[in-house]
Specification:
The protein has one helix and 36 strands. The strands form nine sheets. It has a five-stranded mixed β-sheet with strand order 22-26-25-24-23, with no helix packed on it. It has a four-stranded antiparallel β-sheet with strand order 1-29-28-27, with no helix packed on it. The radius of gyration is 24 Å and the shape is globular.
Length: 445
């Protein structure tokens, strides 16, 4: 092995250690029954989180349990969804949405359409739930998801019944639900239906995926809708938008193809994925250090992130099974898993405790790299070296060195031109004349 290859191997070893120490999940006890998995997580704020359970050993068996924390997950309290009259035994819960410690909604469905689904609200932290009868689903209906923007404004979307998609909106917390006129909703294709929990929201705009490769979109909280094609005849499992223009979604092909839009969902293209893309769930972590997060339940398992809009996926860890994932911002997130065999059952949900960003920081040798990310021109300063002598080495994710330089500069600053390299995540190591090194991630947009 030549010296250059040894350097690349050492750098990659350092990078792997850096990433594994940077990002962590802490297991919490969600108080659910043994074998319960988490199917949906709604984060209200860093302290208040509602989550919905399913039967991990018999996924087709419908259960009606939720769990809630009001202290960031130090204590979770689980309970069944109690209503009077009771929810029909054949029904499951599509998803859960909470707006504070006390108030949340769920929407129920009957897999075989043998009983009428409905919307239920709690005002006492889940101790009691009341059906909101003005969302008049019947036995031919199938509610797919519910969402609330605030304590008053909400939406519930269901499958065509029988001609058009069945959508209700409310402006008073669900005391009164109004059906959206069919003239305001694009007609469905033959045998097209919505998907459970397949939606994304940015501001007043909401997108919803369908079973035949289309995406419904409303910019006014569900009052009027348009439709676009993602990929013909394939199910859009879950769109995830980071802003009004840019988003990703997974479609049900043999390889669960990842698609991307840059125009608000009007057009979509296949993402040329490299790295560890996991296909159980996908979310976006906004805020200061923005990125997409994906998780895996079955082989491969683990969690990964992307800072280049889905092109490149970096493994966070590859040992933990995750059923779903949700982030409020880059520092606040949870991922579902399963409770384990003990008395009482333990585990069930992971809380994010790692650093979820690409920082611009001054390290122990005084190296700074900025702006980061950008289109390929990075500025390096190295303050703690009198003669300004530095060696620069840049490698890609597989350890290939794409840039190397040895320079004596005074003052110790230089522009690093990587505009010839593809977009994605790279690592730069700067070594001074004393042999001291610093490694930092950089992103070419």
């Amino acid at each position: 092995m030549n010296i250059l290859s040894k350097k690349a191997l050492l750098l990659c070893t350092f990078i792997l250690a850096f990433l594994s120490s940077e990002a962590q999940w802490a297991l919490q006890n969600d108080s659910l029954f043994f074998g319960a998995g988490i199917k949906d997580i709604c984060i209200v704020d860093p302290n208040v989180v509602w989550a919905l359970a399913y039967n991990g050993s018999q996924p087709s068996k419908q259960v009606r349990y939720f769990t809630r924390t009001i202290d960031g997950g130090s204590l979770w309290k689980a309970d069944s969804i109690k209503t009077n009259p009771s929810i029909p035994p054949d029904q499951g819960i599509s998803n859960i949405v909470g707006i504070n410690t006390d108030t949340a909604w769920v929407v129920t469905f009957s897999p075989a359409n043998t009983s009428a689904g409905g919307v239920y609200r709690t005002n006492d932290g889940g101790a009691n739930w009341t059906k909101q009868n003005t969302a008049t689903f019947n036995t031919n209906s199938f509610p797919d998801f519910i969402y609330f923007w605030d304590k008053n404004n909400g939406l519930v979307l269901g499958d065509p019944n029988p001609i058009g998609f069945e959508i209700y909106t409310t402006t008073d917390g669900g005391a009164n639900w109004a059906a959206v006129p069919s003239a305001n909703i694009p007609p469905p294709l033959s045998n097209e239906y919505g998907n459970i929990y397949s939606f994304s929201v940015i501001g007043n705009t909401i997108w919803a995926g369908t079973s035949l490769g289309r995406l419904l979109k409303s910019t006014d909280m569900g009052l009027h809708w348009t439709v676009s094609n993602v990929i013909s005849s394939k199910s859009v499992n879950k769109p995830v938008f980071k802003d009004l223009n840019n988003g990703l979604c997974t479609v049900s092909t043999n390889n669960d193809t990842l698609m991307r839009t840059i125009d608000g969902g009007s057009t979509w293209n296949i993402v040329p994925v490299t790295g560890v893309y996991l296909k159980s769930d996908l979310c976006y972590a906004g805020g200061t250090n923005q990125r997409y997060i994906c998780v895996g339940l079955n082989t491969p398992v683990g969690s990964s992130y992307s800072v280049d809009d889905g092109n490149t996926w970096i493994s966070i860890e590859s040992a933990q099974r995750h059923t779903c994932v949700s982030f409020l911002n880059s520092g606040t997130g949870w991922a579902g898993t399963f409770t384990t065999a003990s008395n009482p059952p333990t585990g069930g949900i992971y809380k994010w405790t790692g650093n979820n960003g690409v920082p611009e920081y001054e390290n122990t040798i005084g190296m700074k790299l900025y702006p980061n990310p950008n289109n390929g021109i990075f500025h390096i300063t190295q303050a703690n070296e009198e003669n300004g002598s530095i060696q620069i080495l840049v490698c890609d994710l597989v350890g290939k060195i794409v840039y190397k330089s040895s320079r004596t500069i005074n003052p110790a600053e230089e522009d690093l031109d990587l505009t010839s390299q593809p977009r994605g995540l790279y690592f730069v190591r700067v070594t001074n004349s004393k042999g001291e090194s610093a490694v930092q991630k950089l992103v070419i947009e």
